[in-house]
Amino acid sequence: MRFKFSILALLLEVSIIVLFGIFAEYDNSIAIETLYPVFQDVHVMIFVGFGFLMTFLKKYGFSSVGINMLIAALGLQWGTLIQGFLHRKAGKIPVNIKSMINADFSTAAALISFGAVLGKTSPLQMLILTVVEVTIFAGNDYLVTEILQATDVGASMTIHAFGAYFGLVVTLVLYRPGLKNKHENEESTYHSDIFAMIGTLFLWLFWPSFNSAIASEPISQFKAIVNTYYSLAACTVATFALSSLVDRRGKFSMVLIQNATLAGGVAVGTCADMPIHPFVAMCIGSMAGIVSVLGYHFLTPFLASKLNIQDTCGVHNLHGLPGILGGIAGIIVTAVKDEAR
Amino acid sequence: MRFKFSILALLLEVSIIVLFGIFAEYDNSIAIETLYPVFQDVHVMIFVGFGFLMTFLKKYGFSSVGINMLIAALGLQWGTLIQGFLHRKAGKIPVNIKSMINADFSTAAALISFGAVLGKTSPLQMLILTVVEVTIFAGNDYLVTEILQATDVGASMTIHAFGAYFGLVVTLVLYRPGLKNKHENEESTYHSDIFAMIGTLFLWLFWPSFNSAIASEPISQFKAIVNTYYSLAACTVATFALSSLVDRRGKFSMVLIQNATLAGGVAVGTCADMPIHPFVAMCIGSMAGIVSVLGYHFLTPFLASKLNIQDTCGVHNLHGLPGILGGIAGIIVTAVKDEAR
Amino acid sequence: MRFKFSILALLLEVSIIVLFGIFAEYDNSIAIETLYPVFQDVHVMIFVGFGFLMTFLKKYGFSSVGINMLIAALGLQWGTLIQGFLHRKAGKIPVNIKSMINADFSTAAALISFGAVLGKTSPLQMLILTVVEVTIFAGNDYLVTEILQATDVGASMTIHAFGAYFGLVVTLVLYRPGLKNKHENEESTYHSDIFAMIGTLFLWLFWPSFNSAIASEPISQFKAIVNTYYSLAACTVATFALSSLVDRRGKFSMVLIQNATLAGGVAVGTCADMPIHPFVAMCIGSMAGIVSVLGYHFLTPFLASKLNIQDTCGVHNLHGLPGILGGIAGIIVTAVKDEAR
After folding, report:
1. In sequence order, what are the residues at sequence separation of 6 or more whose Cβ sits closer than 8 angstroms to the Cβ of residue C310?
2. Quick one: which of B313, C49, B68 has its CA closest to A204?
3. pLDDT tens-place string over residues C118-164
4. Which residues in chain A have their CB less than 8 angstroms from residue B55's CB?
5. By the 8 A CB rule, do A322 and A268 touch?
6. What is the mean pLDDT of residues B80-92?
7. pLDDT of amino acid A183
8. Listed residue (A64, A66, A101) closest to A83, CA to CA
9. Least confident window among A259-268, B265-274, C83-92, C176-185
10. HEC-encoded secondary structure of chain B
């Protein structure tokens, strides 16, 4: 019984190596100079950002960082294969810095879902969830960008909203009445809150790289960097203001500072590479911060008590609602642009 | 009463967005390849470096990282506007990676002042201080670099000394006799000291980027990187030596390792991009480490007890004295160079 | 007596500055664009990676980060000199970004040895050890790469195996029977384990830069990045699987997750820049993870109890065995390549 995890993990790894042996090939057609620093920023977000963001729960600090690492390490290999099959050239999977960025991206959705189910799943279940979700993500991403030719450069919808709602469904499926009593594990301590800020800050700082990494041209990349930078800054000021406003004593809530400050990066994702002007990015960021704070304050307790949806890290408010907001913003911006033509 | 902070923060954010809408414009005339990684290093210093450096105080860990984030997020938006007005082109504020680096820079002075007043100010006061200080900084910086045509590439004087003495004046103004009894909050614990090392190390590692970010040419940028690297290394060895020397039992003092090791980056700032030879950079770095250790050991207790200047994080010894040392070094180097001509 | 450390440190620093004054010269013949971001990654690994990796011991958290910083700051200056003498041009030591990367590299061996002797040596002894080991490393590195013309791009042998076995010899020399009773200091706590994960993750994330930093051409650099990325991912999955397998209750061991996940970066080092195909890199990574877990589980207790080799951080399993594995892999790959010709 206790060998199940080890056996499945080793079987998966052996299968992946065999598939890499048959299909994967170095593809050095893309120069590394520009993309490699951006890849490293995304890489830090996936492992340090997502990993430490979840350490705020006093009992799950080590599993959040550790299992996060396992999911991401497995997911990036599996993601390379699945995305490679969908975009293969002459039957081969080309491996380059861009495919490595996409491999890291494909783990993000699984890591967001992990945030919803943290403390309720075993490592064995997480292995299966990772493989399933990375596969669905790659198919969905292919559908949106290749078949529908839609644009979602920062992946507000395809990563953030998708990962959040996938996680919420899983947490509903895994619901057991007894879990409600485990409530005391879902608390933070002074030090665990500072650990979580490591995750928050590295996500916040490198989000401009996340939203610009797969932009097609330097000019779009530049706009995605600028828009995300100012969206996050505006979101942070709005989050502090709202956090103090909804608190009875006017104090800042740590969980809001850790999470809602990032909503601006999620929400500006879809239209980040469009020429929307920095002030529109700041409007989107401020609104995302406000929506996220209100979600944590009013919606999460409601979902938990009425619908039995227990969202451990509140991914619905950080990735779900801001992701949808980003999708709506993208539709409006595209419509306005078409109108102007 | 308790809504004051929220109302002011939201008012400021709305005003900034309106001003961005009227004046700001994308400026993609500068290529992002070279500057963007340097910008990211500076960005990490501002949010992770300054934020975590102040976590060593056991009671202020969360406020130091959290309020640091608020100040920086507000300050970079305000700094973009004020600096943009001073350097505007055809009535518009150009937004590019270089202006983002300068926006981050303009928050640094406010964050240094925050280190002096940590634990003595409310978030509301910090909002006002940030807006005031970023404005004065931008005016001062314009005066020094545009009107006087002086050079201060690493901003020893314009950021570090300015921020430190601004903070000391504020702490003198805010002085209340009762604060002396709050002494026990100004202590560190084992874990808070390790958290602070996260801040120290990210500042130390990325300081070559800080001092070279706005250098005019690749050759100056290269010299600024080399000089800062060796200045910091020499400063670190000198700090460890002096720290053991001034301790009765020969032990290292954590607060010195966390702070004085960085003085070499401050002091070499003004002349970092000049061809001063690495060994001169190392002399400046060693002297800065020694001055900083002596400042913490002898000057800070004196200022606190005799002049009622309570410098919570000791910014006078990290930014004030080494900043002045950097200014003097810059004057000497320039004089020698003019002599040689 | 208590001034010994300070006097030696200051003497060393003064000597280094004098030697820099006589011999060192700026060399701006190498463009900074491509190499500087890679240098920064390596820089983070040396100071944050190695420093925090050792914080898992509850009593040595501060000395590991602090003394790590001292050793690295001294070692990189000394390494610049010694490596510069061996590669000097017209009697001068050229200082550029590449020599700075090599200076950082030369401290890595000393830091690995420090991991073996942590808690058993004084700062004074570490100063001497650093100077001695950096000198031997530079000579050995010169012998391997210049005289023997062998290739070891990721330095599996010249840094990792060398540093580990050097440290083990020192720990044997320093062995005192009483040290066995100090066992309780060699424990981790909940928070110290999370601090150590900061070190693990920054080493893991930036290892592709470490293994590709001194690769001769962009194409070799690209291969080193890809191979290291997939080797580490495979190593991580294998480590989690093995860690659960060797535990009686099937739980993950924190010390294994912190260390053995990195063995894939060590082992793929020697042949990282060769066209070995990603799947071979993944095989090397998985094997390294398995070897490292088995080393921690079976070999370390044996060495400690039977041979009195007390390896505080288990560097033998992270750097020693995987380093040898990397050397063997390099020999096999070279032999196969020569065969194919």
Report:
1. C120, C171, C175, C179, C180, C304
2. B68
3. 888 899 999 999 999 999 999 998 888 888 877 777 788 889 999 99
4. 194
5. no
6. 89
7. 52
8. A101
9. C176-185
10. CCCHHHHHHHHHHHHHHHHHHHHEEECCCCCHHHHHHHHHHHHHHHHHHHHHHHHHCCCCHHHHHHHHHHHHHHHHHHHHHHHHHHCCECCEEEECHHHHHHHHHHHHHHHHHHHHHCCCCCHHHHHHHHHHHHHHHHHHHHHHHHHCCCCCCCCHHHHHHHHHHHHHHHHHHCCCHHHHHHHHHCCCCHHHHHHHHHHHHHHHHHHHHHHHCCCCCHHHHHHHHHHHHHHHHHHHHHHHHHHHHHCCCCCCCHHHHHHHHHHHHHHCCCCCCCCCCHHHHHHHHHHHHHHHHHHHHHHHHHHHHHCCCCCCCCHHHHHHHHHHHHHHHHHHHHHHHHHHC
pTM of the model: 0.95
Q: CA A88 to CA A19: how far, in whole Å?
A: 13
State the first-to-last Cα distance of chain C, in angstroms, to the nearest integer.
64
Is the sign of the CA dihedral A254, A258, A261, A267 positive or negative? negative
Q: Report the pLDDT averaged over residues C202-225.
A: 93
* pLDDT value of position C268: 94
Q: CA-to-CA distance for C316 and C164, rounded, in angstroms?
A: 6
Q: What is the predicted pLDDT for the residue at A42?
A: 96
Rounded mean pLDDT of chain B? Answer: 89
Q: Which residues of A touch C233 (CB under 8 A)?
A: 73-74, 76-77
Residue of A185, A257, A290 whose CA lies nearest to B61: A257
Cα C21 from Cα C316, distance rounded (Å): 39
B77 and A230 in contact (C-beta within 8 Å)?
yes
Separation between Cα atoms, residue C301 and residue B243, nearest integer Å: 38
Which chain B residues are closer than 8 Å to A232 by Cβ?
Answer: 73
Helix (H, G, I), strand (E, B) or coil at C151: coil
Q: How many whole angstroms separate alpha carbon B325 and alpha carbon B309?
A: 21
CB A199 within 8 A of CB A61: no
Residues 264-303 of C with CB under 8 A from A: 275, 277-279, 282-283, 286
The whole-number average pLDDT for the span B40-63 is 89
Distance CA C48, CA B199 (A): 10
* pLDDT tens column, C288-328: 999 999 999 888 888 877 777 788 888 888 898 899 889 89
C56/C305 Cα distance (integer angstroms)? 22
Q: How confident is the model at residue B309 (pLDDT cuts 50, 70, 90)?
A: confident
Tell me, yes or no, if A217 comes closer than 8 A to chain B by beta carbon: no
Could you give the ipTM of this predicted complex?
Answer: 0.93
Q: Rounded to whole angstroms, how far apart are CA atoms B3 and A321?
A: 26
Asked if B145 and B83 count as a contact pair (C-beta separation under 8 A), the reply is no
Nearest residue in chain C measured CA to CA from B224: C26
Q: Which amino acid is at C279?
A: F
Nearest to B36 among A225, A233, A252 (CB): A225
pLDDT band at C178 (very low <50, low <70, confident <90, very high): low
User: Stretch C67-84: mean pLDDT, rounded?
Assistant: 95
A13 and C CB contact within 8 Å = yes
B255: number of CA atoms within 13 Å, CB side? 22
**Tokens representing residue B132 in the block:** 């005031």
Contacts of B36 (CB under 8 A, 6+ apart): A37, A225, B97
Q: Return averaged pLDDT per consecutive 10 residues of chain A, 341 residues in all.
A: 88 96 90 87 96 84 88 96 89 92 94 89 92 94 83 82 91 73 61 90 96 89 95 97 91 91 94 92 96 90 79 85 90 84 71
pLDDT at A185: 56
Predicted local confidence at residue A178, as pLDDT? 61
CA C133 – CA C151 distance, rounded (Å): 21
